[in-house]
Amino acid sequence: MQNQLFSKALLALVSITLACKLGAAPTQWSGKSGDPIEATIFGLHGPYVYLELPDGRQFRFPFRSLSETSQQQAAAWIAQYRQSIRTPKLMSKSESPITALIREHLVTYENRKLQKIETADRTEPEYYAFYYSASWCGPCKRFTPKLSAFYKAMKSAGFDDFELIFVSSDYSTGDMKKYMRESKMPWPALHYNKVQNKLIRKMSGSGIPCLVITDRWGNILQHSYENGEYVGPTKAKDTLLSFLKATRKMDEGLATSNF
Question: What's the predicted TM-score (pTM) here?
Fold first, then answer.
């Protein structure tokens, strides 16, 4: 099992839960096949559990490939971690400058105008998807309906642990509003006065449509550009889906465990 697991280099770790070990001691972990090993869990990134051996070597292992007992251990750990760091309200203080910016400047198209969204009662999601798009962009107008169908399907299926934010590249607030109306965007948008914010623009690529997936602190998990090459927004959308499914599996594992 160890030959299957160990990475030749330490992993670059950015995710919603790559964090402190919560004082955990090494525990036995096992896959659905193979010998158990002693390791300490220290993170979860999408579909992977991150473990550390007593000698300091780190590796990742697919959650779905863990034994039932190890899945329960991972579920218990992530529940403890979330309890230790989760801020229950979007309006609560956060270390994330992205969250602080978003919570004050989200709008939606309603009653023929853009209206500010009240975020006081909204739970902060684990993931954000920033959609850089514009009404004048042909590829954007072809992709937006697909993204809209995805968003509606995910929300209808109870995947509430993410939010998609439209970041307009239109030439005016009026153009942005028209695009939101005509496209029937079901997600919120960043106020037009904030779309040139350095932090928001720093995450975007050199062209659109561009979909960027981040954790709630703003760490980029998937981008429409990889090493300067445009791979398109579909890959980012599919990656978000895998993250959401992995998070749900963790939650289901917790719900059915004895912890």
Answer: 0.65
